[in-house]
């Protein structure tokens, strides 16, 4: 397996996160960063203006917290949620050297510091 080292960044407007990973390709590294951005978004739902499905149902479809989302509306509300989420996700992957990776994960001291 031809593994490569990557520094990834991800977030949803509530702070940026970085991590160091090993992946087989840039596409795989970007997919990992994308999934991390989704997890970050879901963690902040309901906070800092990050809306979940229920928030969209209440704000955009005039439903109350006590209402169950009607089946005929759920697909549209969920699509609105996905569209909003996609618009706020930020993620990237940058290939780095093994040394940069080891420094990033704290396994090696940076000689330049």
What is the strand and helix layout of this fold?
Blueprint: E1 4-11, E2 16-23, H1 26-44, H2 53-61, H3 71-88, E3 90-96, H4 98-104
Task: Describe the fold and architecture.
By secondary structure, the chain is of the alpha+beta class. The protein is 47% helix and 20% strand. It is built from 4 helices and 3 strands, in the order E-E-H-H-H-E-H. The chain has helices at 26-44, 53-61, 71-88, 98-104; strands at 4-11, 16-23, 90-96. A 3-stranded antiparallel sheet has the order 2-1-3. Strand 1 and strand 2 (16-23) form a beta hairpin. The chain is elongated. The mean pLDDT is 93.
Task: Summarize the model shown.
The chain is an alpha+beta fold. The chain has helices spanning 26-44, 53-61, 71-88, 98-104; strands at 4-11, 16-23, 90-96.
Rg, nearest Å = 19 Å
**Roughly how much helix do the residues carry, as a percent range?**
40-55%
Largest sheet: 3 strands, antiparallel
Shape: elongated
Which whole number gives the mean pLDDT?
A: 93
Overall strand count:
3
Helix-and-strand structural type:
alpha+beta
Number of helices: 4
Q: In terms of per-residue confidence, which ranges show pLDDT below 50 for 5 or more consecutive residues?
A: none
Percentage beta strand: 15-25%
N- and C-termini, Cα separation: 33 Å
Order of helices and strands: EEHHHEH
Identify the strand order in the major beta sheet: 2-1-3
Which labels suit this protein?
4 helices, 20% strand, 3-stranded antiparallel beta sheet, 113 residues, elongated
